[in-house]
Amino acid sequence: MAQADSQSRLRDRFAVLLGPVAWLLLVALAAGTWTWAGRFLRTAEDGGLAQRTQVAAAFTRSYLTGLATRQRQDASRALADRTVSQERLEVFGAGLGYTSMILLDDRGRAMLTWPSQPGLIGRDLADELEHVRLALQRDRITVSDVYASVVVPGRSLTAIAVPFPTPYGRRVFSGGLVAADSPLGDYLREAVVPRGGHAYLVDRFGNVVAATRGLGPQIVPLARLVPPLAAALERSPDGDYRAAGQDWHYTSAPVWPDGWRLVTEAPHRRLYAPADEAQRRFGVVLLAAALFGLVAVAAIGHIAHRRLQGQRQLRRQAAELHAFNTELELLAASISHDLRTPLTAMSAYAEVLAEHYPGRMSAEEAGLFVEKIRSNAARMADLIAALLSFSRLQRGQVDLRRVDLAALTGQVWADLAEHRAGRDIRFDLADLPPCQGDPALLRQAVTTLLDNAVESTRDRPVARIEVGYQAGPEGFTTYLVHDDGVTLDPGQLKELFTPFQRLHPTGTYQSVGMGLSLVQRIITRHSGRIWAEARPEGGTTFFFTLPVALPDT
């Protein structure tokens, strides 16, 4: 009996201890998972920053290569005469945004400079300017590191040296620019820099070519601008360092082999804020579970949920970055053509003006050529603005809220009153269900679609535009914008959302062919999709899906 009682007491004690032990094991497992989840989310943020930096480095390389290629083609036409006037050189480089320019002969002697420096004419600059010497020796385009300008004293520049043939021997055109003030600098500031962080484009000697911080006119080494970052880069291309009482994460990507590289950095408190907030919230849940012992299963489920959510987020970010990289490659190819067109036109008009104005052209004729040059310059400005809008939209935050799409569409239609003045357009707006989205972005998308519809029906005496909806995939509504104007063929439908593809000669962003590309990016940022179909009876219908509005709380 005593033995039986002893065994019973042992079983009771075991039963009493089993619960706490099992609970402690569950809490320990949850704590370990909590720590792992925090590391996983931080690793995902590190990977996202690294991927964005690699994409930006590839874009920088494509931008400089495209600029140099166009420069070489244009120089062979505009700067190949026996003598080149100061005005010709100034007009040639004006559209390229150069701070200084030098035209040299095949021995590296200066033939002409802008701004004018008579003391440099005839001087052998090949020994002083390495990029010029390399361009002559290798007969290929050369991009310089940061150097002190010989034309504009006290100014540090980056130059592109382009050798080109002429009937009078080979020549070299060298254009120096302040990269931080160029469209490349705008791209780094607007589309690359993480929140609260900085970006630096560094040459092979460690000098800063462009940065999101003010550099001033002198050459600034990264080691002087941010000494801890420069020291950390000597040890590893990515990692962490501490400066001024704050921890920073940095990453870098090569722009040229064994040469330039793009470096981005962000403070831990900003970069990891979403991950730390998620981890902190779960820590509160875990503490409550440890104290009360009633939410262990829910806490473990929450961990699993957070893990799956983090994995989905990582996959989504990877897919978005892959799509953005593909778009950048397409944009780089488009830029090579579309930005070159107005540059070539301006160069040609300026050449005609320079050759024929003195004594052989009236002031009225000269004014016409000047107006054409200004028109092409304005088109280039529109192209650059559209590119920046596209870049900002990729990185901007989407402010999701309940949107009355019917009211928003009605407001947009009223705003387009001046654009459709004098037209007989029958506008049919259905009682659209609300959606979940960013009001400002959706207004931009609806404006572009209605603007396209107005332009498509311009040749019809009485036009009809319809805005309606139909059932969509689960959790989404499919909206449509139909017009009975120009019917697009299958080939046009395939290229409809490609950047720089113009549907109509007028409109908003359609003037440079970016309107529908921006609409597609807006819909994609809302997890929807957009497509177009041609109606057999005539006209075109645009369909797009948006999330169903959340119920009011």
Automatic annotation (TrEMBL):
CDD domains: HisKA, PDC1_HK_sensor, PDC2_HK_sensor. SMART domains: HATPase_c, HisKA. The keyword Electron transport does not apply. One of its GO terms (biological process) is osmosensory signaling via phosphorelay pathway. Its EC number is 2.7.13.3. It comes from the Bacteria. GO terms for molecular function: phosphorelay response regulator activity; phosphorelay sensor kinase activity; protein kinase activator activity. One of its GO terms (cellular component) is plasma membrane. It holds the Pfam family HisKA. The keyword Ribonucleoprotein does not apply. Coiled coil: none annotated. It is found in: Cell membrane. Keywords: Kinase, Membrane, Phosphoprotein, Transferase, Transmembrane, Transmembrane helix, Two-component regulatory system. This is Sensor-like histidine kinase SenX3. It comes from Planomonospora sphaerica. The lineage of its organism: Bacteria, Bacillati, Actinomycetota, Actinomycetes, Streptosporangiales.
